[in-house]
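Risk register update: the risk of archive-format incompatibility is retired. Evidence:
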Amino acid sequence: MRRRRRHVHGSDFTPGAILAPSNAISIGLSVIRPLYSSAGPSATRGHRMQDQPRAHNGPSGLEQLRTLIADPNRMPTMGKTLNFELVSADLERVVFRGTPTDQFMNPLGTVHGGWASAILDSALGCATHVTLAPGELFTTLELKVNLTRAIRPDGRALTATGRMVTRGRRVAVTEATLADDDGKVYAHGTSTCMIMPPGSAL
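Archived output:
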């Protein structure tokens, strides 16, 4: 006796419900959003991936960051609040520089680990950002920070340098170090980022 095949009818299957990208949030989105105002329609439930625009003529991720460096007034306010800024960006590395003050001091008299984590997260995320093609977005999936030396609010400037470790079509892994001008490392970290195609929703 032959078994009857079950057929899936079009009314029972909604491709958009499976293929639509999920919403994601990242600390670095404040850098991306102002520069993606014309990135195309958002991907929402019910849109098929083939309906999304396939070509984008906007700036690449590297071009976006260089625009921010050229015009400091466009820098996200978070950097101003935490007293650090993006100073250089290319495909090999991204550099942030900042000076922690006593505003960021914890009860023990050292700089709170959140300050080091924030500047490292910025360098880690932007190491992915520089690799983005026009229209692509990214969000942080995982952030790991090791605090290796106490940071004191003594006016010493620190530099966070981020680099790409590996980059696939949808996932990137980056690393960054936080060091002073003498080369002493105060913290280092790694990050895993998800890369989203043009037309995705954040």
